[in-house]
Design goal:
The protein is of the alpha/beta class. The chain folds into two domains: about 220 residues, Glucose-6-phosphate isomerase like protein, domain 1 (Rossmann fold), CATH 3.40.50; about 180 residues, Rossmann fold, CATH 3.40.50. It is about 45% helix and about 15% strand. It contains 18 helices and ten strands. It has a five-stranded mixed β-sheet, with helices on both faces. Helix 5 runs antiparallel to helix 13, helix 12 crosses helix 16 and helix 17 crosses helix 18. The radius of gyration is 23 Å and the shape is globular. The termini are far apart. The structure holds 5-phosphoarabinonic acid. 5-phosphoarabinonic acid binds next to loops.
């Protein structure tokens, strides 16, 4: 099997090879700290050897639960937000047919999402849609108290119980949460739902290879054993034994930190395949929550190309020169579409006749890279042989490991997210949640 590869060649005109190499000792130390649990946030390192420690019977148990939902449900709603949502969506969207949920006579349940916003319109439209469907719910919340998710679950649970009856609803609801704590754990125990545990030592944004990601991915019809196999192989590639130049996580962490030091404050994750939109969303959370603290951190942004070349392309080419790009480049398309010849050639496209669409996309990718590098935008590339479970598993582990190393190079705690609480405190004060009386009083003086 090949591996995904990191190519930093097109960033070397901006930072020197020597400067990148000079990180070898520091990245090795950071990697060691991650494995030894001797750095900041060391209570949240359960993801480090997670792939290689997953047992086959555990994956089989998840598959059995997935099969129950697959047999009973036309639609499965995954309720969760942030780390309890983005990983599953990233993998499912990357693998799914782009028109998946419009397919008739489907062999897999459609996966819909809830609990990731508080839009009344969204929830009304979702519950309307589910009214005539046999549906199930995977409710995911580590804390078990997240308002967005709890609110959506309350509505969905009520609808399901009213439609299918309490007993049947119970068999179509799975809760993924803390082993002991939180409102969702209490509710699940009381109702007798099937549950899975989010380990204490794995934070939300590092949890995609736990049941948080694995169950929805298996329900959607994808091979979780292959996903884990890919992650296992990357665990080895990014391990302590690998020399700096051969460890893509170390080189990526080094390069982006050196670019940051040189004034490149924004990293744009780029894809040339709309299926990767949510991989970028997952990556944004992983890096944004891990590094954006202590008044530091690269701002993680993302574009889908060529779509956004017709909107953000102008800014990227000629705006403030504080950006660099990391392109996820897929070597081979999974499907084949050949451009037909046209006798009138009114659109002038006959010069492309006989070529595959992917050849045109690849030239757009290359042309964009040359243009952006000429426009002083350093480019990194993550080369992925093909979009499948195995390589997505590799991609996940590569980005997770690089994020841990990068956070330690930046001297922040890559495993906490204290800033996330600020909006919650204000929202609870404004909603006059019991226990927030003092905050309510204080915030009202500011209105
Ligand atoms: O990374 C994080 O910790 C957050 O994004 C959480 O995943 C998110 O807030 C959801 O939390 P919970 O799983 O407790 O509902």
């Amino acid at each position: 099997m090949e591996n995904i590869k990191l190519n930093i060649e097109k960033s070397l005109g901006f930072v020197s090879k020597e400067a990148i190499k000079s990180y070898a000792t520091r990245t090795a130390e950071a990697n060691k700290m991650l494995h030894a649990g001797s750095g900041k946030g060391c209570d949240f390192l359960g993801w480090i050897d997670l792939p290689s420690s997953v047992q086959t019977d555990f994956l089989e148990d998840i598959q059995t639960t997935a099969n129950i939902l697959r047999n009973k449900c036309e639609v499965v709603v995954v309720a969760g937000i942030g780390g309890s949502y983005l990983g599953a969506r990233a993998v499912i969207d990357a693998l799914n047919n782009s028109f998946d949920w419009l397919q008739k006579n489907r062999k897999n349940p459609a996966i819909l999402y809830a609990g990731n916003n508080i839009s009344e319109d969204y929830l009304a439209e979702l519950t309307d849609y589910l009214e005539n469907k046999s549906f199930g719910i995977i409710n995911i919340s580590k804390s078990g108290t997240t308002t967005e998710t709890a609110l959506a679950f309350r509505l969905l649970k009520t609808l399901l119980e009213n439609k299918a009856g309490k007993e049947e609803a119970k068999s179509r609801i799975v809760a993924i949460t803390d082993a002991k704590r939180g409102a969702l754990r209490t509710l699940a125990n009381l109702e007798g739902y099937k549950t899975y545990v989010i380990p204490d030592n794995i934070g939300g944004r590092y949890s995609v290879l736990t049941p948080v990601g694995l169950l929805p991915i298996a329900v959607a019809g994808y091979d979780i054993k292959q996903l884990i196999a890919g992650a296992v192989s990357m665990e080895k590639v990014c391990g302590l034994e690998t020399p700096f130049e051969e460890n893509p996580a170390a080189v990526y962490a080094a390069t982006r930190n050196e670019l940051y030091k040189s004034g490149k404050k924004i990293e744009i994750m780029v894809n040339f395949n709309p299926k990767l939109h949510y991989v970028s969303e997952w990556w944004k959370q992983l890096y944004g929550e891990s590094e954006g603290k202590d008044n530091k951190g690269i701002y993680p942004a993302a574009v889908d190309l060529t779509t956004d070349l017709h909107s953000m392309g102008q800014w990227i080419q000629q705006g403030e020169r504080t950006i660099f790009e990391t392109v996820i480049s897929i070597d081979k398309a999974n499907r084949k579409v050949v451009i037909p010849s046209d006798k009138d050639n009114l659109d002038g496209l006959n010069y492309l006749a006989g070529k595959r669409v992917d050849e045109v996309n690849k030239m757009a990718e290359l042309g964009t890279q040359i243009a952006h590098v000429d426009g002083n935008v350093p480019n990194l590339k993550v080369e992925v042989p093909v979009l499948n479970e195995y390589y997505i598993g590799q991609l996940i582990y590569f980005f997770e490991k690089a994020c841990g190393i990068s956070g330690y190079l930046l001297e922040v705690n890559p495993f906490d997210q204290p800033g996330v609480e600020a909006y919650k405190k204000n929202m609870f004060a404004l909603l006059e949640k019991p226990g927030y009386e003092a905050e309510t009083k204080a915030i009202k003086t500011r209105l």
